[in-house]
Amino acid sequence: MRKVALFGGSFDPPHLGHEAIVKALNKLDYIDKIIVMPTFLNPFKSSSFAPAKLRLKWLEEAFGEFTKVEVSSYEVSQNQKVPTIKTVNHLLKSYEKIYLVIGADNLKSLEKWFCFDKLKDKVTFIVASREKIEIPKEFITLRVNENISSTTLRNKIDKNYLPKINAEEIKQYYKEKNEQ
């Protein structure tokens, strides 16, 4: 297991779009393992809606049965914002190649990521498609046909878009949060 796909994010909440990305990655024969890594706190945000440990638990439940998938607590256990470059450097101690998976919606801010020039030299980007966003040719495109946004889901939680194994718990959490 020398080549890994790092799929990080807030996962606030985790949804079927995330699951579709992992399923698509699982079909790529050049990837030995998929590491799903929730952030403690997204470096571009000042807060999360669900606590990091709860999001981690939900992901462990959602991806527990998936082959080749590891849900990592590395960033959550740091108890602070962790730049992607730090996580990549940590993983490079154990793996020879890292494919960094991002959603196409992240392309517009990619150059603002901490130490982006160093990061782009250490990883190969895989970009999950998003409706109406063109992916430049220098990136590997991962075709995903789920256009679900965590932001939209937080505002109008619909359990049909959540992982079946814990949809009710996630729905209840955000419903209560929205009522506060």
Number of strands: 6
The overall average pLDDT, rounded, is 94
What is the element string, with H for helices and E for strands? EHEHEHHEHEEHH
Specify the CATH homologous superfamily: HUPs
Instruction: Report the radius of gyration as a whole number of Å.
Output: 16 Å
Set down the secondary structure blueprint.
Elements: E1 3-9, H1 16-26, E2 33-38, H2 52-63, E3 69-71, H3 74-77, H4 84-91, E4 97-103, H5 116-122, E5 124-128, E6 140-142, H6 150-155, H7 167-179
Parallel strand pairs: 1-2, 1-4, 2-3, 4-5, 5-6
Helix pairs in contact: 4-5
Can you tell me about this structure?
Helices cover 34% and strands 17% of the residues. The chain has one domain: 3-Layer(aba) Sandwich (Rossmann fold). By secondary structure, it is an alpha/beta fold. α1 links the parallel β1 and β2. It has a six-stranded parallel sheet, with helices on both faces.
Outline:
The chain has 180 residues and is an alpha/beta fold. It is 34% helix and 17% strand.
Task: Offer a few descriptive terms.
6-stranded parallel β-sheet; 34% helix; alpha/beta; Rossmann fold; single chain; 180 residues
